[in-house]
Design a protein that fits this description.
The complex is a heterodimer. Chain A is about 15% helix and about 35% strand. By secondary structure, chain A is mainly beta. In chain A, the strands form seven sheets. Chain A has a six-stranded antiparallel sheet with strand order 27-32-28-31-29-30, with no helix packed on it. A five-stranded mixed sheet of chain A has the order 8-11-16-13-14. Chain A has a five-stranded antiparallel sheet with strand order 9-10-17-12-15. Chain A is elongated and about 115 Å long. The relative contact order of chain A is 0.06. About 40% of the residues of chain A have low confidence. Chain B contains four helices and two strands. Chain B has a two-stranded antiparallel ribbon with strand order 1-2. In chain B, helix 1 crosses helix 4. Classes of the chains: A mainly beta, B mainly alpha.
């Protein structure tokens, strides 16, 4: 088999060069003797090919007649004595026939066959080799209980996906002995070595934007270089329960990983399953081709608010019995409600009237009716109901939630005045505590109306504000893994600016303001702090951001804009009408 | 150039031996030198089985030299027994060439 240096050289070749080199290596090893010297000579040849390729020579220029070249190369090596074996076999047969013909009886007695003494397994190539047995005609190879086939050689390339440890049995065949399956077989327990990626959700968490301004896609992903290996292993121990569907692919398609097994069980791909907290999942992947692409294994995390990814089957337990505050099953099982994608048991508001510490185990509890609900797994969770907004007033910090452990935190912002819904804005500010090195946060907004749900994700280790308008109240859900401090603020945006046709300077308070206007204007931002920013956001429709630093301007035409000021200092902007008449 | 005849093979082999008579050359340099000399179809595919065979017969001293961006290159130079092989080739070639010339000249 190819040594490591030659494998590297082979990997460096491309297209026709690679095909030719593979064919040359394959035929050399199958037809010629001398493992080490073959490898040394192949190194020279592969180096020459690599050099020709590097010089940009076309393959047909470097090797015009591949078959002739291979033929002439093979002539240079000593060949296996297949002809001699055939010749000797023929001579032997002739002697037996002649002996029978002239009436000489040949005494025939079955020869004694020993068992195979030792077995060697090479994880990289999948080659199982064993000590040859004298007088053996062939060997039958078993992987666990399954017969893989029979060979006259004393090695076998295993093509199957292998678990970390497996049993191989070799049955020696010869002279009519051992006819019963596996009789006389020597069994050996072998161990496969794989590149292994191990960790929890935080180690593999990834997210990508599917398109700007739209939903994010979250998943766990492990990547493996197929170089030198046939398989890889991914060991995942989730820090909390989650639903996900497994997927495997490479950069070009879905063919690189044939199967996925966990502890020997084949797992169907793309079927959502519950990954349980603390369980150690061992996935074994088999690569279709070695020396090829980087392969990826992925677990897609569905957006829990999307109906097609409804993650929690109806009737699933949301809380452990210890954490449930009532024994009534409808209060701690999932059910599907009217016009709600996921509905959960409502909670008597009275329970939260006091500053009560509650601990829930193993629960998914986005709030529907409760004003606030904190899901936590085993650790302490504190929240203060008294600080939850009951009135909305401008520029006021309304409350603070501290989540010390993983879980969902949800709260409902009530729409107090139906006629002024457009004038309110909820700002969620999320900052990871520095004590947590792996803080993951999802932010999702779910309006009470049945509109499509936005899904925003944050993965930041610093303070980051999120701004969403809401019109009919809404449920804002934060999913937090790791320690996090969440501060939320609710602003009244009903500030309106009167513009009388001349340049006007207005001050944008911390948080931002909505600007109503009628006409065409140029907005000049004069920002004094070098780190300050002013975001201009379209009031309705798809959000578009404009970032202003120092003196900059933006043209607006008829309507409303929301000027968002993420800093804690007021910012001034100047408004100049382009059309005084409006 | 005619195709791969035994005569041609012998000539090509002699020329390769001559190229590495006094200095180390790598395969790419040998191919370039042969093509420059007029053997336009001479390729790596022709060269490396020849190098393998001649090296096995002891015609070369070799050395490897590391390169920055590619695998280490192997360089070839004629050994003592290679020199003997080259001299033998040249004697045969000279005699053959004279004989051929004589016949062609006589016919004219």
């Amino acid at each position: 088999m190819l040594n490591r240096e030659n494998k590297k050289l082979l990997k460096s070749l491309q297209n026709d060069y690679k095909k030719f080199a593979k064919k040359l290596c394959s035929r050399t090893f199958s037809e010629c003797k001398g493992g080490k010297s073959l490898n040394e000579n192949l190194t020279d040849i592969l180096s020459m090919l690599a050099e020709a390729q590097a010089e940009g020579k076309s393959f047909s220029d470097a090797v015009p007649d591949p078959e002739a070249t291979i033929r002439e190369t093979l002539v240079c090596f000593p060949h296996k004595n297949t002809r001699l074996v055939i010749l000797l076999s023929a001579l032997f047969c002739a002697l037996v026939l002649i002996g029978s013909g002239i009436g000489i009886s040949v005494m025939y007695r079955p020869v004694y066959l020993e068992n195979v003494k030792s077995v060697y397994f090479d994880s990289e190539s999948g080659r199982i080799a064993w000590s040859a047995v004298k007088n053996a005609d062939a060997y039958e190879v078993y992987l666990d209980e399954k017969s893989l086939g029979t060979t006259e050689d004393n090695f076998w390339y295993v093509d199957e996906t292998l678990p970390q440890s497996f049993q191989v049995s070799i049955r020696v065949l010869g002279e009519g002995r051992y006819r019963a399956p596996r009789e006389g077989a020597s069994a050996f327990t072998l161990y496969a070595e794989y590149p292994t990626e191990e960790g929890g959700i935080a180690n593999f968490y990834t997210e990508t934007a599917q398109n700007p301004g739209a939903s994010m896609r979250s998943f766990l992903e492990a990547s493996f270089d197929t170089d030198d290996y046939r398989q890889a292993r991914w060991i995942l121990t989730p820090e909390y329960n989650f639903y996900g569907s497994l997927d495997t692919f490479d950069g070009l398609g879905h063919e690189s990983l044939q199967s996925l097994t966990a502890d020997g069980e084949v797992i169907p791909l793309s079927e959502p399953m519950l990954f349980e907290e603390g369980t150690r999942y061992v996935f074994t992947f088999k690569f279709v081709e070695q020396y090829g692409e980087t392969c990826y294994a992925r677990i897609d995390i569905p957006n829990i608010l999307e109906a097609e990814n409804y993650p929690i089957p109806r009737g699933n337990t949301l809380f452990g019995a210890d954490g449930a505050y009532t024994s009534d099953a409808r209060y701690f099982t999932a059910y599907e409600g009217n016009n709600e994608l996921i509905s959960f048991a409502s909670v008597d508001e009275a329970i939260f009237n006091a500053n009560t510490a509650l601990t829930y185990y193993d629960s998914f509890c986005p709030a529907f009716q409760p004003l606030i609900c904190i899901r936590n797994r085993g650790g302490e969770t504190r929240f203060s109901f008294r600080e939850i907004v009951t009135e909305i007033s401008p520029d006021t910090l309304q409350g603070e939630i501290t989540a010390e452990k993983s879980g969902y935190i949800s709260f409902t912002a009530p729409a107090l005045n139906v006629t002024s819904r457009y004038d309110y804005l909820i700002t969620l500010a999320v900052s990871a505590e520095t004590s947590s090195s792996a803080c993951l946060m999802h932010y999702s907004e779910n309006s009470f109306s049945s509109e499509p749900h936005d899904y925003l994700s944050l993965f930041e280790d610093r303070f980051r504000p999120v701004t969403e308008p809401f019109d009919e109240g809404g449920v804002f859900t934060l999913f937090v893994s790791g320690n996090a401090r969440i501060r939320y603020e609710i602003y009244d945006l009903s500030q309106s600016i009167a513009i009388d046709g001349s340049a006007t300077t207005i001050t944008i308070p911390a948080g931002g303001t909505k600007l109503d206007y009628d006409g065409v204007y140029t907005l000049y931002a004069t920002v004094y702090s070098p780190t300050s920013m002013l975001w201009l956001q379209e009031w309705q429709g798809v959000f578009g951001w404009a970032v202003y630093e120092h003196a900059n301007f933006f043209l607006v035409e008829f309507g409303s804009v929301f000027l968002y000021n993420p800093t804690e200092q007021p910012l001034e902007i100047r408004i100049t009408p382009l059309s005084p008449s409006g | 150039m005619t195709s791969d005849t035994q005569l041609n093979k012998g000539i090509l082999e002699g020329c390769v031996l001559r190229l590495v008579k006094t200095k180390y050359l790598c395969p790419a340099e040998i191919v370039d030198a042969m093509r420059t000399a007029g053997f336009a179809e001479f390729s790596e595919g022709t060269l490396y089985p020849m190098l393998l065979r001649l090296e096995k017969e002891g015609c070369f001293e070799t050395k490897r030299q590391a390169t920055r961006n590619s695998p280490p290159k192997k360089f070839y130079r004629l050994s003592e027994s290679g020199r003997a092989r080259l001299e033998q080739f040249y004697r045969l070639w000279s005699a053959t060439a004279q004989n051929v010339a004589k016949i062609f000249n006589d016919e004219e």
